[in-house]
Fold this protein.
Amino acid sequence: GENVEQHPSTLSVQEGDSAVIKCTYSDSASNYFPWYKQELGKRPQLIIDIRSNVGEKKDQRIAVTLNKTAKHFSLHITETQPEDSAVYFCAASLGANNLFFGTGTRLTVIP
Amino acid sequence: DVKVTQSSRYLVKRTGEKVFLECVQDMDHENMFWYRQDPGLGLRLIYFSYDVKMKEKGDIPEGYSVSREKKERFSLILESASTNQTSMYLCASSLSGLGRGNYGYTFGSGTRLTVV
């Protein structure tokens, strides 16, 4: 099956700075890569996703890049705000249904 | 606006008890999943189901079983609860990707189970 590794496990940034979280995957057949944000005590929620036919996708302060050759994808958050503080999970999908998750990154934005 | 509902937010059970965790979705999703979430281990898949009465083992099925008698409901059963099953349990659902491409999950709010 697919193996997804996520780094770093914790990340602290000053408010206004950028944050980058990186994930690698093992199976070149994976074709869907979502990112989830989980605030303290709440459910994970999809914040952005990218499919294998696209190299980059942006949604306001959030962007995701995909390098299929190197089998890695990254989440970029610019102009970070305290409300960005959360645990972020990357995931990869081999086929139509199952997602394989990374172990999560706890992002802390320091005011 | 809640689309995936887990029956209990917090649950305390005794060792050896049979425990039922219920999950209901109202989005007519074909796929449903049960994960457990532990610090440093991320989300680990216990069981999933692509259709009514269908179930597949995930990465850590030992000590668990599931039931899907109706499309909207997916139950996780701990046959004989043990302390190492103390965890946060998350249910999720998604549209079937067959012929339509991949879709993300919608998660429930989670059930924090403590086994004493």
